[in-house]
Amino acid sequence: MHHIYIDLETLPDLAMTPAERAESEASIRARVPKSYKKAETIEKWVGEKMATREAAWLKGSIHSLKARVYVISYAIDDDPVESMWTGYHPDRTASVDEEEGLLVGAFQRTLEARLGAPLHEVPHTFVAHFGATFDFPILRLRAMKYGMHGLARALPSDRWARGADDTALMCGSAGTHGAGFALDECARFFGCQRKTDGMDGSKVYGLWLQGKHEEAAAYCRQDVEVLRDVHRALRMWVR
Question: 2-13+66-235: CATH homologous superfamily?
Answer without folding.
Answer: Ribonuclease H-like superfamily/Ribonuclease H (3.30.420.10)
